[in-house]
Write the structure tokens for this entry.
Amino acid sequence: MVLGSRTADRDLTLSCLGTDLNSTIHPRLEGQGLLVEAIKVLAIIWERLSALARQQAPLVKILVAGTSQVGKTSLVQSYVFNDFLDVSPTIGINFAQKVCLGEQGPLNLSIWDLSGEMRFKFLIPQFCSGAIGLVLVFDQARSDTLNASAEWLDFIGRYAHPFHSKAIVLVGAKSDLASRVPLHEINTFCTEHKIAAFIPCSAKTGANVHRVFESLTTIIQRTLPELSSSTFPHLAVS
Ligand SMILES: Nc1nc2c(ncn2[C@@H]2O[C@H](COP(=O)(O)OP(=O)(O)OP(=O)(O)O)[C@@H](O)[C@H]2O)c(=O)[nH]1
Ligand SMILES: [Mg+2]
């Protein structure tokens, strides 16, 4: 009796399990199909919203500057393509564009990545006009590059839009390598030059790369709340 009832109980359980499995596997498969469709729809919506954001977000021009070989182009490429690509030294200038979401919404960043080589320096003034933000890059693994940044700051200050001095982010590039620049020197540099933020980052690992541009976007928005596409039509890249 006892065995019989146990067998009966087990059969009952198995049949219940069977029923459960049957009734759960198929809806789950169906659910997966629906999930895939829902993801496709979301992807299309996301793409359309991004396109809309590109059209609607105010276009602002920012510069990326610093000594040669500190990692400026790698930083921009990592931000735009989410990849650490093999890049050549910049000849004069590179351009990139990306919508960046700041604290107060999106800005369409027109990113002008300047060569750090002395032989191209004579070209720089004409590229700076109308820029309202600056990503100033030095190489944490090369101690001389922080002081060299001061020269870049001074040089760009003569040609960029006066507003840019309020929207500067100092970037300590190659944070995946051992740092040779003490933090107190960086802090002193930021205080002396009234730099809004310092962010160590690595284009190689991707660490903090997005934070650099998101912080600059937010700083620009906080300092220029009236920013709208009509406010700076002259900043549009032709
Ligand atoms: N380990 C490490 N190497 C990096 C990183 N970013 C750039 N590099 C390397 O540093 C070198 C210079 O990088 P670039 O991005 O060309 O530097 P740049 O400042 O644009 O140089 P110019 O265009 O000549 O002014 C390259 O060999 C890069 O691979 C990083 O985050 N980590
Ligand atoms: Mg470069």
In short: The domain at 6-228 is CATH 3.40.50.300 (Rossmann fold). Residues 2-56 form the longest helix (55 residues).
